[in-house]
Every structure is written in C-alpha cells, then in structure tokens.
Amino acid sequence: MQRTQKISVEQLKRDYSDAVLLAAAGEVLARWNAVDALPQLRIVFNGRLRTSGGRALLMQQTVELNPRLLAENPQHIDVVLIHELAHLVATARHGRVKSHGKEWQQLMSEAGQDPKVCHSMDASEFYHRRRRPRLSGARFLRRILKRLIK
Ligand SMILES: [Zn+2]
C-alpha cells in the first residue's frame, strides 16, 4: 500500500506561497513564449471549490486552486497549475476556444503534459491517479523546470 502524503491546508499554503506559485507559473509561461500574455495573472486558493483541483477564471486571468483537495494530493499541484494556465493562455491568444480543444492540447504538450489525458480534476480522478512523492515548494519548482526541459 502506498503511503498517503496528505498535508494540512496551512502547510500547503506555506509550501506554495504566492511567490512560489508565480515563479512556477513564470517558468511555464516562458516555455510557451507567453510571459506577456497574462499581465493580470493571479493564483489564489479558493476554499469554496469542491470537486475540482482548480479552475481558470478566463476573463480575470486568475487560477483558483482547491486547497482541501490539493492538501490531500499535493503531488498533483504542478499538473493542476499547468492545466489551468493552459486555459488562460489559450484564451488570451485565441479568444473563445473549446476548453480542452487543440489550442489547449498544444500548450499541454509543449509543457510536457499528455495532451490526450484531459484531467477532469474531479475527486475520483484525483484519487485513482498514481501517487507521487510529495514536493516542497523548491522541489516543485525544480520539477516544473525539469519537465519543461524534456
Ligand atoms: Zn480544464
């Protein structure tokens, strides 16, 4: 049996401070040549999210992260962040496009993600995915970088 890597919401928010999240987002945006695409970008925890790991508020250029689900699955925070950022960049570049359409898929593959896997980020999807080691903020950043170099 794999050990659970659950952390507290407080710990999650300490590990993934604004600075860490924005630095990680900056690396992903650089990979997409999109550093100027989201001048208003905000990444926030929203405790009212229930079953999704995160969501993208397209007009506000905001990524919301689900603190409770991510505290239970901190190993997935990078995937959630990239997934939601891809929605924002696809919209910034192309306007209204299909949520998980070809523009979004292209960005996902450029960021080293499997574009065919549409992570619905609902709770069951979360719990069935393979467990990965939990990451500190610094390791999270390093892994994002490594993933982008591939
Ligand atoms: Zn999505």
Cα separation of the termini: 30 Å
Mean residue pLDDT: 85
Instruction: Please state the second-level CATH architecture.
Output: 2-Layer Sandwich
Shape: globular
User: How many domains is the backbone divided into?
Assistant: 1
| Adjacency order of strands in the biggest sheet | 1-3-2
Gyration radius over CA: 14 Å
How would you explain this protein's 3D organization?
The protein has helices at 9-15, 18-31, 67-72, 77-94, 102-110, 123-128, 137-149, and strands at 42-45, 54-57, 62-65. α2 packs parallel to α7 (137-149) and α4 crosses α5 (102-110). The protein starts with 8 loop residues before the first helix and ends with a helix. Strands 1-3-2 form a three-stranded mixed sheet. Helix content is 49%, strand content 8%. By secondary structure, the chain is mainly alpha-helical. The structure holds zinc ion (ZN). Zinc ion (ZN) binds at residues 83, 87, 99-100.
What layout of secondary structure does this protein have?
Elements: H1 9-15, H2 18-31, E1 42-45, E2 54-57, E3 62-65, H3 67-72, H4 77-94, H5 102-110, H6 123-128, H7 137-149
Parallel strand pairs: 1-3
Antiparallel strand pairs: 2-3
Helix pairs in contact: 2-4, 2-7, 4-5
